[in-house]
Protein: HTH merR-type domain-containing protein
Amino acid sequence: MEVEGKLLTPGEVAAMFRVDPKTVTRWAAAGRISSIRTPGGHRRFRESEVRALLAGEGGLIDDDADS
Structure:
């Protein structure tokens, strides 16, 4: 499987949204943000999608659990 664009770790995404990395993991588990699993089972996120969400172009809903 080939993935285009840079992939971000949960920690990098969390820093961009100013939330805890566990919040990003919960968002992914709930389907609020899509993620890719590495062969080792770690989550990665497409930078282009994360930037779109930050710009308000996506459907991420704040769950009031971001700290």
